[in-house]
Write a structure and sequence with these properties.
With about 400 residues, the protein is of the alpha/beta class. It is built from 14 helices and 21 strands. Bound molecules: flavin mononucleotide.
């Protein structure tokens, strides 16, 4: 239920604007206080009067209309709302949000929002797949804006494809899920490792791996969204640390080991998503190794196995491991789970298209100690991360299982 929650609903000018009426109506039936902001284009598709009646509040249309109260309406609205939902979100409003444009009431209020923003994109599938729209969506997701849909199917323009707005029921369910999942890990301390460690050979070279860190960063974001005080121990990546997450930068496996062990005792949830080098060079040359005529032989020494050591020492901690494999995925993953005493293992075959390193999507299975397994379809990594956090919360007895 959404009792006590204020939701700001932004309606932009797409053919799906008529569905905003149902979204507003459903949100109110769930107990939310609703305030609607419409773009000028949106008013061509649905009458403000409809949304005024359904939301039970005046509809905001004009940036410079004579205010009914002394305060600055767009700032007051942004501060009052517990979340904002743009439904439908046109390609235009997504682009404006991505670049931080504030040239009408809706874009300005969204720029002033400090709480969760949801967008339900709706547009012709060519517009949706245009690189500009995809880049804008990726940029918004990076800033923690949640996207709902779009779905695929028949489009008003007469074509078939994805770009169709998700159904009002699904949109409202996702908003409700956010508020019910929100803060279920409040009071818990979480630690996530991410990225690929780098083992120096000399001052200019290192042994590394292809891990981008995207999955680990997404898990840190999802844990933080769920209220956990989250620390992210990260090997070098080019990704922005999610808002509210405490970053700890490391380079080598040994540094990562030390950073994790230092915080281990006080941590409740540990998610090991980093790709840690199994070996490091025995000697690190102080000078750049010069090209030689003969072959170069490197001697490597084992790095500590961080996951195994945590698994052996853990008391109250909930431990999640990741297994990235290129063959025999489930067999190797199950063995890893038992050997390393982890509570939940996320297994992914990094050779599948749309899975693994550098991709914004992944195809994973969750393996549980009782032999249960959940196979997920290809999904954005942030969605996988949220599902993972949900399972963690359920197993820790902090949230009810979704049926
Ligand atoms: C009949 C019609 C339907 C439209 N449907 C959509 C749509 O579904 N999605 C979209 O992104 N733009 C759609 N547009 C284009 C937008 O209305 C246009 O880009 C407008 O500038 C959006 O303004 P706003 O984002 O401020 O509401 C449509 C335009 C017309 C005339």
């Amino acid at each position: 239920m959404l009792q006590g929650k204020t939701i700001l609903i932004g309606v932009s000018g797409g053919i799906a604007a008529y569905k905003a009426a149902e979204v507003v109506s459903r949100l109110r039936k769930c107990g939310a206080e609703t305030h609607v902001v419409m773009t000028e284009s949106a008013t061509k598709f649905i009458a403000p009067l409809t949304l005024r009646i359904l939301s039970a509040n005046p509809v905001h249309l004009e940036m410079f209309e004579e205010p009914k109260l002394w305060n600055v309406a767009h700032i007051a609205l942004a501060e009052q709302a517990d979340a904002a939902l743009v439904v439908p979100a046109t390609a235009n409003i997504l682009a404006k949000m991505a670049i931080g444009l504030a040239d009408d009431f809706l874009s300005t209020v969204l720029l002033a929002m400090r709480k969760q923003i949801f967008v339900a994109p709706a547009m012709n599938h060519a517009m949706y797949h245009h690189p500009a729209t995809q880049e804008n969506l990726a940029c918004l997701r990076k800033r923690n804006v949640r996207t709902i849909g779009p779905a695929a199917g028949f489009q008003a323009c007469g074509t078939e494809g994805d770009g169709r707005m998700s159904e009002p029921q699904e949109i409202v369910e996702q908003v409700m899920e956010y508020f019910s999942a929100a803060k279920c890990l409040k009071g818990k301390k979480a630690l996530v490792t991410a990225g690929g460690t780098q083992e120096p050979l000399d001052p200019v070279r290192y042994l590394g791996n292809r891990s981008s860190g995207i999955m680990g960063y997404a898990v840190a974001q999802a844990l933080q969204e769920a209220g956990a005080e989250t620390t992210l121990v990260s090997a070098p990546t080019s990704i922005e640390v999610p808002a509210g997450v405490r970053p700890v930068s490391v380079t080598t496996a040994l540094e990562m080991f030390e950073a994790v062990m230092e915080r281990f005792a006080e941590t409740d949830i540990i998610v090991k998503a980093a790709a840690v080098a199994d070996y490091r060079p025995v000697d690190i040359s102080g000078q750049k190794i010069k090209k030689q005529k003969s072959n170069l032989h490197l001697e490597l020494i084992s790095n500590p196995d961080i996951l195994e050591q945590i698994g052996q020492r853990k008391t109250h901690q909930f431990l999640v491991g990741f297994a990235a494999e290129t063959e025999n995925l489930l067999k190797y993953a199950q063995e890893k789970m038992n050997r390393k005493n982890v509570d939940l293992l996320v297994a992914n075959d990094v050779t599948k298209p749309g899975a693994g390193f550098g991709s914004s999507t992944n195809i994973v299975s969750f393996l549980f100690r009782d032999g249960k397994r959940i196979d997920w379809p290809k999904m954005p990594k942030i969605e996988i991360a949220r599902q993972l956090v949900h399972e963690i919360a359920v197993m820790m007895g902090l949230e009810k299982k979704e049926e």
